[in-house]
Write a structure and sequence with these properties.
The chain is built from ten helices and no strands. With about 250 residues, it is mainly α. Among the domains are: about 110 residues, no CATH class; about 50 residues, no CATH class.
C-alpha cells in the first residue's frame, strides 16, 4: 500500500499544479439532469478550494482529500463527506478508496479528451467539425470558439487544414487515422514499463533516449501539447496496471 500511496501522491502533485484537467463525476445514482441540484457522488468530497460542500465533480482536490483521510483519519470530515469518501463501501476510508477516486479521475479525463476531431466540443464527430477547423484556420473564429485539444487531431500543436482533412477521412470511413496508441514511446505496439523508462530517461535529458515525432506525440498521454513529468506520472500509473487504458 505504501508504493500505491506514493504513486497516488505523485499524480496528484501534477494535477494540483494544473497539469491535468478536471473530470466528470461517477455516481451511485442515475446521470444528473441539467436542472437537478448536485446529487450524491462517491468520491466528490469537497468543492473548489477545499470547501466542504461537494460540487458534483471529481477533481484532484477530492482525490487528495481522500488520500489524506485514509492516512490521518477522518476527524475533520462531515458525515456526508465520510459517506462519499467510502467509495468501496466497506465502512472505512482507506487507501483503496483514494486509489479508486484517483483512477476514475485520471481515466475520465483521458477518455474525455480522446474524442479527437470533436472541434465543436459536443462529444460527437460530424461534418460540422472539419468546417469548424477550417473556419479557425481561416481566422473567422477565435480560440474560444473551438475545442483546440480535440481539433488538433495529429497532435502537432497546430490546428489547420490538415486536421480538417483527417477528420473528413475519418467521417469517410478511414477510422485508423486517429489511432495513435498513446504511451507506446518505443514503437513496439504495446504500452509497458519499458515505455515509462524511456520517457523517464528522455525527461532526464539522457541523449540516448531518442524519440521520433510520432513517439513524442504518443508520449503526450494527457493531451496538453507538452511532454513532461505529468505524462510520466500518468504513464507509470498505466503500466502499474492501475489504469486500464488510454481510450485508444
Amino acid at each position: 500500500m505504501k508504493n500505491s500511496t506514493k504513486k497516488i501522491a505523485a499524480v496528484l502533485s501534477a494535477a494540483i499544479l494544473g497539469a491535468l484537467p478536471m473530470a466528470n463525476s461517477f455516481t451511485a445514482n442515475a446521470a444528473k439532469a441539467a436542472n437537478d441540484v448536485v446529487k450524491f457522488y462517491y468520491g466528490d468530497v469537497c468543492g473548489e478550494n477545499g470547501k466542504k460542500t461537494p460540487d458534483g465533480k471529481i477533481t484532484a482536490e477530492d482525490a487528495q482529500k481522500v488520500l489524506i483521510w485514509s492516512s490521518k483519519g477522518v476527524k475533520d470530515a462531515t458525515a456526508d463527506q465520510k459517506r462519499r469518501a467510502d467509495v468501496d463501501g466497506d465502512g472505512n476510508v482507506s487507501g483503496n478508496d483514494a486509489q479508486m477516486v484517483l483512477e476514475f479521475y485520471v481515466s475520465a479525463i483521458l477518455c474525455e479528451n480522446d474524442i479527437l476531431g470533436d472541434a465543436e466540443g459536443d462529444n460527437t464527430v460530424d461534418i460540422g467539425d472539419p468546417v469548424r477547423i477550417n473556419r479557425y484556420h481561416n481566422k473567422t473564429i477565435g480560440n474560444l470558439d473551438i475545442d483546440f485539444i480535440r481539433a488538433d487531431v495529429n497532435k502537432d500543436g497546430i490546428v489547420n487544414n490538415y486536421d480538417s482533412k483527417l477528420v473528413q477521412k475519418y467521417l469517410a470511413g478511414y477510422t485508423d487515422v486517429f489511432n495513435v496508441r498513446y504511451g507506446d514511446t518505443n514503437s513496439d505496439g504495446e504500452v509497458t514499463e519499458a515505455d515509462a523508462r524511456k520517457l523517464a530517461r528522455f525527461l532526464a535529458e539522457d541523449k540516448t533516449a531518442k524519440f521520433s515525432d510520432i513517439e513524442l506525440r504518443r508520449a503526450d498521454v494527457n493531451y496538453d501539447g507538452k511532454v513532461n513529468n505529468a505524462d510520466l506520472n500518468v504513464l507509470l500509473m498505466r503500466t502499474a496496471k492501475n489504469i486500464g487504458h488510454f481510450c485508444d
